[in-house]
Design goal:
The protein is of the alpha/beta class. Helices cover 30% and strands 28% of the residues. The radius of gyration is 21 Å and the shape is globular.
Length: 422
C-alpha cells in the first residue's frame, strides 16, 4: 500500500486546477445505460471510483474507453453493446456505494436489475430504502435476496414521489428511471445539490424532458428513447474547497482555477468568518490568510448548507483556531472517525453524539496516522501540512477514491509531500 509522507509547516502559495467532480461523473456514467448511442463525458480525472464504475459498466455490456479530446481534456466514452448481464456483483459494489445508480437506468430500459447492496466508506448507515420505495411508486417490484436487490417491471409509469429525507443518489436514481417512464413523474423533497443539476443537464442533452432541478421539486416527463450526448462535467467543489483549506490552514495564498464559487457558498462563508480572505478570480477562487484562525461553529446540512463532505477537513482547520469551535454532523452518524487521529497530533477535541467540541491549540505535531475513509484522509493530509515535523498517512487508497493525484497539486503549491510504498 502507498502512504503519504508530509513534512509540514510550509505556507502554500500559487495556483492549481481543480478536477472534474467525481460525484457528478458517476451518475453521468450510470445515465449512459439509458442512451441509444455513445455518451462522452469530458473532464474525467483518474480516480479509483471512476475506474471501478467503468468495470461495472463493462460487466453490464458497455464499452468504456478513456482518451483525450481536441483540447487535451481527458474524456470517457461509453457505448452500450448487447446487454450481457443485469447484475452488479458484490465484488465491485462493496467498494463503492454509487454502484446503486445503475438500478434506475437498468429498470427503465431493460425492465430488470440485480444489484448487490452497496458499500463504500464506513461513515454510517446510508440506506437505499428511498430508492426502492420511489421505484415501487413507478411500478417496479423489488425484493432483497442473499444480499442483492432484485427489481423487475413491465414498464415504469410516472407517479408522484415524495422523499422522506433528502437523498442525492436517490433523487438521481429516480430522475434516470423516470426519464424513460410512461407519463409524468414529480419528485418532491428532492436533493438540490449541483451534481443533481449536472445530471439533469446531461439527461436533457440526451433528449429527456426535465425541469425543476436545483429546487426541491423536479418534474420529469417520460420519453420513448434517449440518444447519445457529449457532456462537460462540473468542477469538483469538494476538491476545490479542500485545496483552498490547504492554503488557509498553512497561512498561505492559494488560487484554485476552475472552482465555481456559486456552489461553494457555505464553505467560503465559513472561511471568511475564520479570518481568511476569499476572492473570486477570473475563472477560479483565491484564499489567503495572514492572521490568526478564528474558531467558528459548523453544522452540516444538505445543499445549500455546509457539506458533510467538508466536515472532516474543516475540523482539521479548526484544530488551530483561537478558541472553541462546535462542529455538528447531521447527515451521517459515524463521521468523526478522524478525531482519534487528529488527537494523536495534539488536537483538543471532545465528542458527544453527533457534536464535536474543538479547542484550538497553538500547533499540531507530526505523527503516523491511519486514514479511515475518503474525506477523513483529506483532513489528515491538511493537518499534516500545517503540523510541525513529519506526518505519515497510511491507507491513502481511501483518498485515491476521490482525489486525482492530490499530492501533485499540493507539491505545485509548495508542499513537501511524497507518496511512498509502505
Amino acid at each position: 500500500m502507498d502512504i503519504f509522507v508530509i513534512r509540514g509547516g510550509k505556507p502554500l502559495s500559487g495556483s492549481c486546477r481543480v478536477s472534474g467532480a467525481k460525484n457528478a461523473i458517476l451518475p453521468a456514467m450510470a445515465a449512459s445505460l439509458l442512451a441509444e448511442g455513445p455518451v462522452e463525458i469530458v473532464g474525467v480525472p483518474v480516480l479509483r471510483d471512476i475506474s471501478t464504475f467503468g468495470k461495472l459498466l463493462g460487466i453490464l455490456g458497455s464499452e468504456v474507453t478513456r482518451g483525450f479530446d481536441a483540447s487535451g481534456t481527458e474524456t470517457v466514452r461509453i457505448v452500450n453493446g448487447p446487454v450481457s448481464s443485469m447484475e452488479a456483483p458484490y465484488e465491485l459494489v462493496k467498494t463503492m456505494r454509487a454502484s446503486v445508480l445503475v438500478l434506475g437506468p437498468l429498470l427503465a430500459r431493460y425492465g430488470r436489475a440485480r444489484i448487490s447492496l452497496p458499500g463504500g466508506c464506513a461513515i454510517g448507515a446510508r440506506p437505499i430504502d428511498q430508492h426502492l420505495r420511489g421505484l415501487e411508486h413507478l411500478g417496479a417490484k423489488t425484493s432483497l435476496s442473499e444480499g442483492y436487490i432484485e427489481a423487475t417491471t413491465d414498464r415504469l409509469k410516472g407517479a408522484s414521489v415524495r422523499f422522506d429525507m433528502k437523498t442525492v443518489t436517490g433523487t438521481e436514481n429516480l430522475m434516470m428511471a423516470a426519464a424513460l417512464a410512461e407519463g409524468t413523474t414529480v419528485l418532491s423533497n428532492a436533493a438540490q445539490e449541483p451534481e443533481v443539476c449536472d445530471l439533469a443537464c446531461l439527461l436533457r442533452a440526451m433528449g429527456a424532458d426535465i425541469e425543476g432541478d436545483g429546487t426541491d421539486e423536479i418534474v420529469i416527463r417520460g420519453v420513448q428513447t434517449l440518444k447519445g450526448a457529449r457532456h462537460e462535467v462540473m468542477a469538483d467543489r469538494i476538491e476545490a474547497a479542500t485545496l483552498l483549506l490547504a492554503g488557509a490552514i498553512t497561512g498561505g495564498d492559494v488560487t484554485v482555477e476552475g472552482a465555481n464559487s456559486r456552489y461553494m457558498g457555505a464553505v467560503l462563508d465559513k472561511l471568511r468568518e475564520s479570518g481568511a480572505e476569499v476572492y473570486e478570480t477570473d475563472g477560479g477562487v483565491r484564499t489567503k490568510r495572514a492572521g490568526a484562525i478564528r474558531s467558528v461553529n459548523v453544522k452540516t446540512a444538505p445543499y445549500p448548507g455546509f457539506p458533510t463532505d467538508m466536515q472532516a477537513q474543516f475540523m482539521a482547520y479548526m484544530c488551530l483556531g483561537d478558541g472553541f469551535s462546535i462542529i455538528s454532523e447531521t447527515i451521517f452518524e459515524n463521521r468523526f472517525m478522524h478525531v482519534a487521529e487528529l488527537r494523536r497530533m495534539g488536537a483538543g477535541i471532545d465528542v458527544s453524539g453527533n457534536t464535536a467540541a474543538v479547542k484550538g491549540v497553538p500547533k499540531l505535531s507530526g505523527a503516523p496516522l491511519m486514514a479511515t475513509d475518503l474525506r477523513a484522509s483529506a483532513s489528515l493530509v491538511l493537518a499534516g501540512l500545517a503540523a510541525a515535523g513529519t506526518t505519515e498517512v497510511f491507507r491513502i487508497y481511501h483518498l485515491d477514491r476521490g482525489y486525482d493525484l492530490l499530492e501533485n497539486k499540493l507539491c505545485s503549491l509548495g508542499a513537501d509531500i511524497e507518496r511512498v510504498k509502505e
